Amino acid sequence: MPVHSSFIFIFQCIALLGALLLGSCKENSRQTKDVSDTKENQLKLNLTEAWIMPDSLHSPETVIFDEANNCFYVSNSLEYDFTGTGYITKISADGKLITKYWVSGLNRPTGMTIDQTTLYIGDMDRVIVVNIGDSTILASYPAPPNPFPGVNDVTISAGGELFASASSIHAVLKLANDSMQIWAQDTINLQWANGIYGGEEGLYVAGMKLALVDYQTTVINEVTLSPAIEDFDGLLPDGNEGFFISSAGPGVNTIWHITANRETYVLSKDNYYNGDFEFIPDQNLIITPSGNVDGGEFVVRAFILNK
Predict the structure, then answer these.
(1) Are the CB atoms for 278 and 7 separated by under 8 Å?
(2) Measured between alpha carbons, how far is 45 from 39 in angstroms, rounded to an integer?
(3) b/e string for 5-34 if b means 16 or more Cβ within 10 A?
(4) Half-sphere exposure (CA, 13 Å, Cβ side) for 90?
(5) Which of 30, 109, 273, 277 could bridge 75 with an S-S bond, Cβ 3.0-4.6 Å?
(6) Of the candidates 150, 20, 176, which has an alpha carbon nearest to the alpha carbon of residue 81?
(7) In which band, very low, low, confident or very high, does the pLDDT at 147 lie, cut at 50, 70 and 90?
(8) Model confidence band, residue 252 (pLDDT cutoffs 50, 70, 90)
(9) Do the Cβ atoms of 73 and 92 come closer than 8 Å?
(10) How far apart are CA 57 and CA 100, in angstroms?
(11) What is the Cα–Cα distance from 302 to 307, expressed in whole angstroms?
């Protein structure tokens, strides 16, 4: 759910809807480009394409791995509007289509998280709750209606609490009394809040900046990166006190690595937008929804992380 990509372009210029989407993808195997002049190349950490799911989706935004069922779920939509044309696709662990419309009747589903047998989905002005066992919708938690919140990513904290980013109001929402309520808000440090991750030390929020929000006090601190980057989308821990992140938008369709000491390195940079991706540590796989908006071609790509 790109901050600039999914939301700045969506909310500031609806004509550029889904600006998380640039590029095309046809080849089945290749080394990613434009990393030869980066520090990451010196660390011998890069990505090689492992597989690609053929063009059969609609503006995929997020992919998440269901370890218990050994499959992926991908959020899709035809447009950013309240049309009920959004859906979740189920694909196999090796990128084969299982059920295209596994969950349907959504609007513009974006970020997702799994808690045991339950899938939580950000969907514009609400968070949808799905029973993974039979793909039925169990509940819908509304977000504050005014102004339009732009619910984006969702996460479960270490304490089991449900949070969602609200990009258009630069906020983080928290589930309370069966609704998503404003928990933290800041037009600077949470500007275009997008990817979120519930860490032990606090809630990480990636928007125009990377910030850490204290669970108890909601004090927001910017995470200083070197060199600095902005316009975040996906955000996932790397298992070594660092992060993998994606960014999207004109000229910045990049997957980054943030090390434990907060140094930033380019892993991949090409013409394809990368939405909210998944990282499977024991397989060294990064799986990302990608696409070419102008060409109307959308895929899911898997990359091997070479160390």
Answers:
(1) no
(2) 10
(3) bbbbbbbeeeeebbbbbbbbbeeeeeebee
(4) 16
(5) 109
(6) 150
(7) confident
(8) low
(9) no
(10) 8
(11) 16
Domain ranges within the chain, ordered by starting residue: 3-306
Structure tokens given for 295: 């060409």
- Cα-based distances in Å from 95 to 19, 99, 159, 236: 25, 12, 32, 20
Summarize pLDDT for 152-202 with one digit per residue, the tens.
999 999 899 999 999 999 999 999 999 999 999 999 999 999 999 999 999
Question: What Rg, from alpha-carbon coordinates, does the chain have?
Answer: 17
Q: Is 105 left (phi over 0), alpha (psi -120 to 50) or beta?
A: left
Q: ω into residue 2 within 30 of 0, thus cis?
A: no
* pTM of the predicted structure, to 2 decimals: 0.86
Residue labelled with tokens 């089945």: 28
Tokens 């979120």 belong to residue: 196
Beta carbons of 277 and 244 less than 8 angstroms apart: yes
Going from the C-alpha of 202 to that of each of 70, 153, 281, the distances in angstroms are: 29, 16, 22
The CB-side HSE value for 96 (13 A sphere, CA atoms) comes to: 4
